[in-house]
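As the next step, I needed to go through one protein, both as residues and as discrete backbone shape codes, included below for the reader:
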Amino acid sequence: MKCASFDGDADRLIYFYQEAETGKTVIIDGDKQFCLIVKYIRDLIHSLGIQDKLSMILVQTAYVNSRAT
């Protein structure tokens, strides 16, 4: 089961799912969501064969979760 939820003032979106084997709830926070989106875009760029024509930079602010690094 995959789920999504907004926080109280709806400025954050949290994805979460339940592992089938253990039943443990896994939260995909904003930092992880951003990293997954960047990885997806990087993979698209490579599949198009245009990685030599583009530069991609991931910028983290002081507010980023240290686990994202």
